[in-house]
Design goal:
This protein is α+β, with helices and mostly antiparallel strands. Helix content is 27%, strand content 31%. It has 2 helices and 4 strands, in the order E-H-E-E-H-E. Strands 1-4-2-3 form a 4-stranded antiparallel β-sheet. The longest helix is centred in the first third of the chain and has 11 residues.
């Protein structure tokens, strides 16, 4: 059981979260945007919860890091 870290492009983020929600439905994760830059943000929760938040953004932009908790 290890923590998994993945880097994702903005145009693939929503699909990556959809797939994560299907495969790892009950696994907690964090989606970090623009780490080490002004305006960095971190969303925490289940993949489906984060996907619902991201879907409300007018545009998905920035550099994304997905951190998946060990199972």
């Amino acid at each position: 059981d290890y923590t998994t870290v993945a880097f994702e492009a903005p145009h693939r983020l929503e699909e990556a979260l959809r797939q994560t929600a299907q495969v790892l439905a009950n696994r907690r994760l964090a989606v970090c945007r623009n780490l080490t830059k002004p305006g960095e943000s971190v969303l925490r929760g289940l993949a489906q919860e984060i996907l619902e938040k991201v879907a409300t953004w007018p545009t998905v932009s920035g550099e994304f890091t997905i951190v998946i908790a060990p199972g």
